[in-house]
Amino acid sequence: xxxxLFCWPRFLFLAxxxxxxxxxxxxxxxxxxxxxxxxxxxxxxxxxxxxxxxxSVGAEIQNLQFSNFTxxxxxxxxxxxxxxxxxQRRVEGGKTTVDVLRxxxxxxxxxxxEHPVQTRLQCQLLERSGGAFFSSFASRGVQFAVTPxxxxxxxxxxxxxxxxxxxxxxxxxLSAQLSSPTAQxxxxxxxxxxxxxxxxxxxxxSPVPKNAAGFKIYPxxxxxxxxxxxxxxxxxxxxxxNAVEIGEVRFSYFNPTTRTFEVAKAGPFKIxxxxxxxxxxxxxxxxxxxxxxxxxxxxTPGQGVxxxxxxxxxxxxxxxxxxxAGFLLACFLFFQLKGTxxxxxxxxxxxxxxxxxxxxxxxxxxxxxxxxEIQDRTMVRFAPSTRAKTLFVLQPGTTVVPLExxxxxxxVDAKGQRGWIETSAPKK
Length: 428
Fold this sequence. Notes:
Blueprint: H1 8-21, E1 29-37, E2 41-42, E3 46-56, E4 60-67, E5 76-78, E6 82-91, E7 96-109, E8 113-117, E9 120-129, E10 136-145, E11 149-154, E12 165-178, E13 182-183, E14 189-199, E15 215-217, E16 221-225, E17 229-238, E18 245-246, E19 249-255, E20 260-266, E21 269-270, E22 272-273, H2 307-316, H3 318-337, H4 342-369, E23 372-374, E24 378-381, E25 390-394, E26 399-406, E27 409-414, E28 417-422, E29 426-427
Parallel strand pairs: 2-11, 12-19, 13-22
Antiparallel strand pairs: 1-3, 3-7, 4-9, 5-7, 6-7, 8-11, 9-10, 12-14, 14-17, 15-17, 16-17, 18-21, 19-20, 23-26, 23-29, 24-25, 26-27, 27-28
Helix pairs in contact: 3-4
């Protein structure tokens, strides 16, 4: 059958009309669902919760809300949802294209168990009517049932769990560094460790060395504890030359990707002892300061009086200085109150004088107790061992100040020179 020439104008007019007005499009919500990444969640693991909404192409939504959406804070914590860029997806075997609106919230699993989520979506759906030059948008309220979702948080397996498991779940690396590879007994060494990676480190235990025999160990200090970063410091002081190694640092964690326990390691850290050059008696004690340096001595032209010597002199004669100062204060109080309150002045003067004499006696006893007098000729050694090198010799009658004790040895100060002597050598 052939179309007559008379019908062609009507056909062309109808085609033009449909092109200009278009066919009414029906906006609809196709699916709404929750998805977690990763799919399998373990306790103490961080995860991402996605909400995906599939719409017909060109449709939009406003005032999106959930009804009866509950959270179980004993199983997990969840942050706020944030909108992600819209994408398009082919569905129904590639026959249909849909717009996908996505929203993301970061969560943290805190317990073991299951929590079902059954909620409905309420929103304003914007649909387009008409097309080309004659299109417009209309808004209508809709409710849509979200696909039921089950939060399932699994317990960590017991098989293969190390005794020093930190509690962290994720993938992490460990680095550690000792402040110096060389030392002397009594030196301060700082061990700095850094753990970082993918996962939540906030509930994890800080890594510590496996062993550190012969060291005085100070409590661990945390510098930074964040979601994916943990930095710590710990001070170690070698007590003798046999303290030659700080054991390896271990950080054990559970890797949810491989579903196995893994360990990040650093160390062990070897210590090499070096000898310090002999210094003359008048050189004083060298101290490493952590603040700006200040003058260590008060000198006059032609003299070499050290500040340390002045302090020692004040300490030795403190028991005389305190009563003298008290007597001067008593005289001042007496003459101030003489005439108007003579009895009160006498009472205060006697009270201050007695108190000053008592403090002076106490200071004298404390000064005697804090020093030791060498009775026999004594070798002062580099470390608390008879095999350690002899630094210098103390003659009978020399007074020394004890600094610390290590077993049957004492570390003493003899007018600025320091070293170790046997406990049986000194006599009070």
